């Protein structure tokens, strides 16, 4: 799967965020000596004072760079982004995941009065959109990287949406309800400063920043566990598995894989990896819960259990991981030790030896956390780092800012925050695009209502489970479920052009697989006779 390595090299992790107002620069010169921005240990700290109206933010926006505690000059050279039209509304979308990209496409597809069609710019630190629910198929070879991770430039070529590959630095909104009075169509909603020094002034802002795996919860997870959240993660896991398969070829010692977490991601990984190893390895899966998929429909849970048992996946239910550490390193291959303990009081810990540890437990939204400072320009944020929104998806107190996907903490009628799933982000993108249209055209905004259409999961190369919510008691599993899931995701791909290309590619692969299966069956019959 060389194409995975090539794709990984061209990718960065996923969208981080924050922006800036030109008035800040002047105030920075006026009040020289008061630090506007500090970097601390891979985190961004944005100081907030009444003079600068800056947010004090904490974000792990920059990966893999140790910035120490260097001061960034307030007088750093910045270039204002030049919008093509000075009169039409300006919409800036931060983050190109499901929520961000689909909001941009929704805005472009709507019918607008000539003078009110907004100029839309989409900012993401990666050049590719990643269809995350299909990352597992990269491990089985069912899909190519380009099919589920197309470039933004290709997806947006037939739209008026502009794409900018950059990282976000500072967010400076100026639309607080208590300060500016009622929002009007004209007038800036704030500005965004990018890492490159570009400053984008916007009328409407959409936060769609995604989330990243939370590995720093136990000792050793950051150093020795592999997350599975981005295209880059999937490529690394595939490369590791390929290397283990090559090194263990012809040897009796099995490849040992430990999967931490048995929610959807953990179950899908355990099923996919166990099928790929086909008796050449041992897969152990750990969950602190007493059952797999605790919140899934019973049909999906039963289908998953059946597959995992058939493939001899060892389930450690009611266990938690205490630490992960290195045992030995031989020929650039590091064996690790996973120490687990049962939930019961007084239970002794156990040690699992592993060649590969896959981590699927927990994530943290990339929306920066806010430190309380009493200044009314703060964004209301939950303990998980998500922006609190009202039912129209507007951030509370900020009528010019919408938040969708992992960035949004929208509560249902029972006060429970909606799950951070692709299905929720798809639907929120439609509403966010429509509500921006309504706000620009002085129409009433629509309240978002999530419609659960059901749940899907992959369980192997020709195996999946689908439980639609609109047919009680029905679960499609096996090859039928696999085909239905693939068709559902084909329909959900971002653009018509990309759907056609991917559909043709999948049909060609299916035809080749069918011919190979027929030839194999004929060979078996002939050899048997």
From TrEMBL:
GO cellular component terms given for this protein: chloroplast
Entry keyword set: FAD, Flavoprotein, NADP, Oxidoreductase
Catalytic activity: demethylphylloquinone + NADPH + H(+) = demethylphylloquinol + NADP(+)
InterPro entries according to UniProt: FAD/NAD-bd_sf, FAD/NAD-binding_dom, NADH-Q_oxidoreductase
Location of the FAD/NAD(P)-binding domain: 90-429
Gene3D superfamilies reported for this sequence: 3.50.50.100
Coiled-coil intervals: none
Lineage: superkingdom: Eukaryota
One annotated GO biological process: phylloquinone biosynthetic process
GO molecular function, one term: NAD(P)H dehydrogenase (quinone) activity
EC number(s) on file: 1.6.5.12
Family that this chain belongs to: Belongs to the NADH dehydrogenase family.
Protein name (database record): demethylphylloquinone reductase
Named cofactor requirement(s): FAD
UniProt organism field: Lactuca saligna
